[in-house]
Amino acid sequence: GEALATMEQVPAVFDALLDGTQDYTIDSRGDIGSRVREAAMECLERLVWASAESPAAGTLLTPDLVARVAQALAQQAMEKIDRTRGLAGEILARLCGGQRKDAHGGSNFVPHVPRRAEVAAILGPAEELHWQVPRESFPRLVQLLRFDEYRDAVLTGLVVSVGGLTESLVKASSACLLSHLASYTPAELEQFALALVGVFKRHALDDRVTVPLLTMVDLLFCTCVLEPLLGVEPVTSQLLALTRAEMKKTQNVKKLRAGVEVLCGLMLAAGEVRRKALSSLMLYICHRFPRVRKFTAEQFYVGLMTVDGQIDPGTIEQVHEILTETLWDGDLTAARVERNKICDLLGVAKPKVTAAGAAAAAGPKKKETDDLDSYRDLVDRAMGGY
Fold first, then answer.
1. How far apart are CA 97 and CA 367, in angstroms?
2. Which residues does residue 30 pair with via DSSP β-bridges, in sequence order?
3. Around 355, how many Cα atoms within 13 Å sit in the side-chain half-sphere?
4. pLDDT surpassing 80 at residue 380
5. Bridge partners, residue 27, by sequence
6. Nearest to 21 by CA among 48, 49, 44, 46
7. Other CB atoms closer than 10 Å to residue 299's CB: what's the count?
8. 30: three-class secondary structure by DSSP
9. What tens digit of pLDDT does each residue of 288-309 get?
10. Is residue 259 within 8 Å of 247, Cβ to Cβ?
């Protein structure tokens, strides 16, 4: 039939569809971005096969372009929405295995798919398993972490699943990740950690990725997966800097809690990283949000129990006593007094109280009112729509 696009236009169409696979728009109608991602992936599959059958296949399907398509599919195949994940897994398996979705003939080979034979062997035929079911798809897809060409894309999708809210998905993805990493050598583990840092950098201040990523890092600390890397400064220092940057000035309590957990894990790191992690914890134990103060104190108490040999046991006992006897979600000024005692015991510099911090300790400013103020406010709000 008549061509719908010229050869010159095809690269721009590919770019637009690849951009569509990264649409995470949420509005009053819900997660409309997922529908865009699914439509983009379906169109990409058709366009890839059409290009493969074209006489200009060698020009249209460059190694870089095909790699970008495969990576986009690998990322979506690891993410949290079952329907989207299932579609991405099926398409990736078909592209790697040379399986067309339609019944008629034509090319059964897409050139330049990264690690095509190895990925096809891991994934198997597209119809072989239920791609929407995490316990079936994740054990296969997580193996792509070993390939340089797929590692970043797989990690970007995986962190959203491991640090997500759906219990069944979190359990399945976490179990697969931990089982996979158990076979890593220290060198492979460092490579994995640096890739995770890279994802953190690329998505800095994007709560959709960084909040679950912090949760995932905490999981890796709690399960001792990252223990061999506590002395590897390029990993720990970057994790610390990125975590502190995420927490700075945010009002997202979930992010603050996840960041505190990571800071507690970094207390086990060597030298300057441990000192800076302690300093940050002393800042958040007197955060202006009472529940953040209380949570930080609880996590700090538990974290100190794991610091073997780095802090004098007698000092830890005194700090534990202060932590348990102080009402951290009570008066902020009183909490600062106790926090400063902990700083002295640990040899950590006391955080400086800023003007905003002083205002938070003083509490909300009271204005002069009379008995009619509350009634006037009620009437004003009731009449506001007329």
1. 71
2. 27
3. 0
4. no
5. 30
6. 44
7. 20
8. strand
9. 999 999 999 999 999 999 887 7
10. yes
What the block records as the tokens of 26 is 């949420």
Q: What are phi and psi of 252, to 5 degrees?
A: -80, 105
**DSSP SS3 for 27:** strand
Residues of the chain above pLDDT 90, percent: 77
Residue identified by tokens 């759906």 is 166
What distance in Å separates the CA atoms of residue 128 and residue 96, rounded to the nearest whole number? 14
Contact 310, 274 (CB under 8 A): yes
Query: Cβ contacts of residue 84 below 8 Å, gap of 6+?
Result: 34, 37, 38, 76
SS3 content of the chain, % helix, strand, coil (to 5): 70, 0, 30
The pLDDT tens digits for 153-196 are 999 999 999 999 889 999 999 999 999 999 999 999 999 999 99
* Gyration radius (Cα) of the chain, Å: 26
* Residue 242, token pair as written in the block: 């990125």
Q: Which residues contact 138 (CB under 8 A, 6 or more apart)?
A: 78, 161, 172, 173, 176
pLDDT level of residue 57 (50, 70, 90 thresholds): confident
Amino acid at 219: L
The reported pLDDT for the residue numbered 385 is: 43
Q: Looking at residue 363, what DSSP letter applies?
A: -
The residue-averaged pLDDT of 54-83 equals: 94
Per-residue model confidence as pLDDT tens digits over 98-110: 766 654 445 568 9
Angle at the Cα of 276 from the Cα atoms of 274 and 279, rounded to 5 degrees: 110
The reported pLDDT for the residue numbered 363 is: 57
**Residues 18 and 68 sit within 8 Å (Cβ to Cβ):** yes
The DSSP-derived string for 237-261 is HHHHHHHHHHHTT---HHHHHHHHH
Looking at 153-264, which runs of residues are DSSP E strands? none
The Cα 344–Cα 58 span in angstroms is: 68
Question: How many residues can be counted in the chain?
Answer: 386
Tokens of 331: 């008066």
DSSP codes of every residue in 109-145: --TT-TTHHHHHHHH--GGGS-TT-HHHHHHHHGGGG
Structural contact between residues 284 and 256, judged by C-beta atoms closer than 8 angstroms: yes
